[in-house]
Amino acid sequence: MMPRIKVGNEGSSCEVDAILFDKDGTLLDFIYTWGIWSERLLASCSSALGWTQERVDEMEKLIGLRRSKVDGHIEDYDRNGPLAMGTVDDLLAIVALEGYRGGGTWADAKTIAWNAKAEADAAIEAEKAARLLPHVWPFLESCREAGLKLAVVTADETAAAKRHLEWLGIASFFDACVGTDAVENGKPFPDMAQFACGLLGVMPSRTAVIGDTNGDMLMARAAGAATAIGIVPSGREISAQLPSADATVWSFAELAVES
Question: Which residue segment(s) compose the domain that 117 sits in?
């Protein structure tokens, strides 16, 4: 009997040979890592460009961060925004454009953006800021026991993604890790999923994709994946955020692998 991935107690199931996982917001706590990174990035840009706090707040909203109205802490993110769906280069282009609009040269604006990235990267490295989301570990163990091949497909850069998996202690579960720098076109295009399937030696039509953005779902559909499963750990309304998903869940506790 071939392994099947099952959604919910009475939900649908699909026979697969492999599963492709998004990383940020799917395996690791998005806010814990990228909240710190984004705050440091924008703080550095603000210092260099003389932004007011109001401007910093506007930039947070622009890239897709959501702060609590109660205590001001970052509590969520826009799963269809640049921070969640875009690449690091996309984010740097956004902040560089703001610097250019403020009167600087494009060269100066790009330099400020890249220096800010370096500071943000250093902050993440120093703290090893990565935290595994609930129920991920037992699900990965069940995948391994069932003999499924696993890969990570992420908008992050490959080297950084591999470090995060090591920090989380789950790198050994994966047969491949594909970052956006490994392909010509990142999400929502099919390149990353197709490349990962090639590395695993499986057909996309025998592969499930699990992610937290509609970009993940669109990538899965474009690649011809067997199923696209959306996961939003916050437990908020998810069907409207991930309209291209075949199924949506709140956590890995709602998924099972049967063999």
Answer: 31-127
Please indicate, yes or no, whether residues 118 and 138 belong to a single structural domain of this protein. Answer: no
| 51 and 168 inside one domain | no
Q: What is the pLDDT of residues 168-196, one digit of tens each?
A: 999 999 999 999 999 999 999 999 999 99
Cα–Cα dist 62/227, whole Å: 31
Residue at a domain's end among 85, 106, 127: 127
Q: Total domain count for the chain?
A: 2
- pLDDT (tens digit, 9 = 90+) per residue, 118-154? 999 999 999 899 999 999 999 999 999 999 999 999 9
Q: By the 8 A CB rule, do 95 and 45 touch?
A: yes
